[in-house]
Each structure stands twice: as C-alpha cells, then as structure tokens.
Design goal:
Helices cover 39% and strands 16% of the residues. By secondary structure, the protein is an alpha/beta fold. Helix 4 links the parallel strand 4 and strand 5. The chain starts with a strand and ends with a helix.
C-alpha cells in the first residue's frame, strides 16, 4: 500500500522518506491547497530523496479553471519538473460548469512526456464525479485521482470513495483529506484503496505550521500493513 505525504521543504521531504513514506507530493502554499513550488525547491528535494517526488502544478488558488496563457505556463512548469528530476506531476482542470476540462487536460498531458500524473482534488468540485471518473479513466497517462469523495474529509465519504474504486476501470483512487492514524483503520475497512494521501494528519499538532512527525508516518504504515495482511 502506497503512503503519499505532502511536503513543502527539503527538510520535510527527507523526514518523510526516512520515516518510510513511499511517495512525496511536493507543493508550496499548503494553506491554499497547494501551489507550484519554486524550481530551486523542486531540484533540491529531487536531489535529496530517492522516493518518487510528484510536483503540484497549480499557478493560483482562485479556482481550477485556467486561461490559455495559464495553461502555457503550466505546461512549461511540467517540462522543467521533468528536467529537474521529478517523477511525476499533480494537476487538474475543470470548466466553469464544473466538468473536467478536456481541452486543458489534453494540453497538459502532452507536456508530461512520460511523467507520472495525478489528477488532484479539482475532482472534488466537479458536478458529477462518476462522469468525471469516466473521462479521466480514458487517459492512460493518468495514474490516479486524489479525492476525498467530494466531502471535506475522506472519512465522511467512504461509500462514495468505494463506489469510485468499483467503477474505475484502470485509474487508482488515492484517498486523501483529513486522514490520520486515528481514523485510517476505519477508512481501510470501508474503502479498498491501495494508495493513501496524508497532509496535516502526519504532522505535529495536526498542523501545517509544524514539522512532519515520523512516528505518525510509521504508525500509518504499520496500520496499512496490518490491513493488507488481514485482506
């Protein structure tokens, strides 16, 4: 089971790897939901860890709708991420009427050139998640969808998340938002995911203002391993 951890610094990323995390989602502006980090940070993290680093590609926090000029900038960011050693990128785009923006999606995918792709929580703002899943599922370049099932916290949407898992033909459902050691067992009992995403739940005081707590990551991994053996 893959444990992905949000980081916004080289220090965070090294701690996450040492604690046993399997993948990093590298961002800046965590309190705004994650924005594209600086090139210096991307390079520094990629040179400091051996686990995959997936970089957030999000130029602003106003919405998940993007102009042609913004898409061009995002595509350039994607190309530079590859040059700097990132394993993947994390992006998403929707239209004003809350559907997957297929034009934006195709444009950004064309810039990835083999990078791993996560469609991020723009998915949680779409009008119909099953319609969106069907569209995203058709793009073989996209590995997974990060989602809380449309709720503020993933634990509040276990039924929706399990339905998404069952209806997906190919793409992985990466459950995330509000997950922590104290509720991960409940999620795994009800949702058959193989990838889980953590933010504040693996930090001291459950806060992005605090460092990553390696013991919380290790606790999550132990629970996930127990679940895998039980299944």
């Amino acid at each position: 089971m893959i444990i992905e951890v949000i980081t916004d610094s080289k220090h965070d990323s090294i701690i996450a790897e040492q604690a046993g995390a399997h993948r990093i989602e590298l961002v800046t502006g965590v309190l705004e939901g994650g924005l594209t980090p600086s090139y210096g940070l991307i390079e520094g993290v990629c040179q400091s860890v051996t686990i995959p680093v997936n970089v957030m590609i999000r130029p602003h926090s106003r919405s998940f709708c993007y102009t042609e000029e913004e898409l061009k900038m995002m595509a350039q960011d994607i190309k530079i991420c590859k040059e700097l050693g990132a394993a993947g990128v994390v992006f998403g785009a929707i239209t004003e009427d809350k559907r997957v923006d297929e034009h934006a999606l195709n444009y950004l995918i064309s810039a990835t050139k083999g990078l791993d792709i996560t469609f991020h929580r723009a998915f949680d703002e779409v009008h119909d998640q099953f319609e969106a899943l069907c569209i995203i599922d058709q793009h073989k370049e996209i590995s997974r969808i990060l989602t809380s099932g449309g709720k503020a916290k993933a634990i509040e949407a276990t039924n929706q998340l399990q339905q998404l898992v069952e209806k997906s033909n190919r793409v992985e459902i990466l459950a995330g938002s509000g997950l922590k050691p104290s509720n991960i067992s409940q999620l795994l009992d009800e949702v058959h995911v193989s990838e889980i995403h953590f933010g504040t739940g693996v930090r001291f005081q459950d806060s992005f203002y605090q460092d990553i707590d390696p013991e919380k990551i290790q606790e999550v991994i132990k629970i996930a391993e127990t679940y895998s053996k039980r299944k």
